[in-house]
Amino acid sequence: MDQPWWQKAVLYQVYLRSFADSNGDGVGDLRGVIDKLDYLDWLGVDALWLSPVTVSPDKDWGYDVSDYRDVQPVFGSLDDVDELIVEARERGMRIVLDLVPNHTSDRHPWFRDPAKRDWYVWADKPNNWVSAFGGPAWTYDKQVGRYYLHNFAPGQPDLNWWNTEVRDEFDRILRFWFDRGIAGFRIDVANGLIKDKELRDNPPVQRGDPPVLRRFGQRPTYNRGETWVMDLERLARFYGTGTDQLHLAFNFPYTFAPLEAAALRDVVERTQAVFPPEAWPVWMLSNHDIPRFPTRTCGGDERKIRCALLALLTLRGTAVLYQGDEIGLEQVDVPLDRRRDVEVEGRDGCRTPMPWTSDGGWSDPWLPLGETTRNVEDERADPKSILNFVRDVIALRRSNADFQSGSYEPLEAPDGVWAYRRGDSTVVLNLSDEPRAYEGTTLAPWEGAIN
Questions:
Q1: If we measure between CA atoms, which residue out of 218, 212, 201 comes closest to residue 256?
Q2: What is the pLDDT at residue 205?
Q3: CA 448 → CA 44, 69, 147, 307, 308, distances in Å?
Q4: CB 97 within 8 A of CB 12
């Protein structure tokens, strides 16, 4: 059988508000993406994953949907979506959309329709579940006289996926977008769709649980299955056979592993050991919810950034770049008076505008620009830049079948060196502060090579 396109792909995540602004209102938009398609084609990516384009009151910046079949006006229109799909296809790229089926906005007409009351999760007495944004996951609705569930903000009531009418409606929503030419969806909160029917209390955290759980004092046993997991065996269960599976599930243990040879090799080998034979890994280093990897993992060191990107793009699996990864864009320390995120700890620092030029290329952006020394225009002109390095590795990945479908085989290597074979090709990364020799070649500190 032919390998599915998404297994060979490099996906590029576009956080729409901060990617490219075509009309000078300070907010990125669909026409801005269209204007940058030639750049993305030059870079070599295969598909664009867009953050939500649908209508929203923006309490959670698009992840609180009030209309699943139309476009947020500040982003453009359905005609712009159609044009983007056509223009991307002409360049050999596909469009993937964010779908938010776990919850809607409280301003969605469904939420106030008495005939659709059972489309949401209600209780006479709340259990102990807590919101991902902090505080109880239940809010009392005076009009209804009951509590509604919101695993996120109070303005994001959870849908009841035990109700077949909800499932049927999302079948129609999917068809609406597929008929327009969308190639697929990244499903937001896929882990949380089905809640415990009895709404049982969650158990308390246990010793050894990761900080993300200790922060809330409980394990999300009954309200979230959690693909956002640090347990690879649990992650593997989201893969299956036929249609009863996710095609891809992000490997967060890899994302948050330190940039050390032993740690990264361990995650990849354990992933291979527990995943079903037909399961396809997906790797990423940054996204719209976590601090950018050049700061979080690499401390801004360009050598380390290159090593991290080389591994990302040469491992067996689908690779995902978050906008700015390709230029080594770092996390921005957004001043308190400029923060816009509903999340308590704030995710604005990884959502700041993409710097296209040395002055940013934005006019009064919705979030402040960070340091613009690393920008697309200057790096594109510099053949030794991170951007051109990423482009070269993507081109190699595209031209060499080893990096599209070849197996992953770890190789014996000195301490601090991660070496692996993909088909007939070998990748060697010196992830240490000292020179290391490997098979007659000496690698400088934080240097990678492909043979």
A1: 212
A2: 87
A3: 21, 46, 55, 6, 9
A4: no
Q: List the catalytic residue out of 46, 64, 80, 188.
A: 188
The sign of the CA dihedral 442, 308, 314, 379 is negative
Q: How many Cα atoms occupy the beta-carbon half-sphere of 138 within 13 Å? A: 17
Give dist(CA 417, CA 432) in Å, integer.
Answer: 7
Contact 1, 274 (CB under 8 A): no
Q: Which of 226, 341, 379, 402 is catalytic?
A: 226
Summarised one tens digit per residue, pLDDT across range 30-73 is 999 999 999 999 999 999 999 999 999 999 999 999 999 999 99
Confirm if 56 and 90 have CB atoms less than 8 A apart: no
8 Å CB contact between 365 and 371: no
Question: In this structure, are residues 182 and 53 in contact, taking their beta carbons and an 8 Å threshold?
Answer: no
**Distance from C-alpha of 120 to C-alpha of 116, rounded to nearest angstrom:** 8
Provide the 8-state DSSP code for 436. E
pLDDT of residue 1: 58
Pick out the chain residues at pLDDT < 70.
1, 212, 226-229, 242
For residue 345, indicate whether it is catalytic. Answer: no
Domains and CATH numbers, the chain: 5-101+164-189+285-406 (3.20.20.80), 407-451 (2.60.40)
Q: How long, in residues, is the chain?
A: 451
87 counts as catalytic: no
Please report the sign of the dihedral spanned by the C-alpha atoms of residue 338, residue 340, residue 342, residue 346: negative
* Two structure tokens written together for 111: 């939420």
Token pair of 375 as six digits: 């920008």
Distance CA(178)–CA(184), nearest Å, equals: 8
Q: Where are the alpha helices (DSSP H) in 286-406?
A: 293-296, 302-314, 376-381, 386-399, 402-405
**Structure pTM?**
0.95
Residue 220 has a pLDDT of 86
CA distance 351 to 324: 10
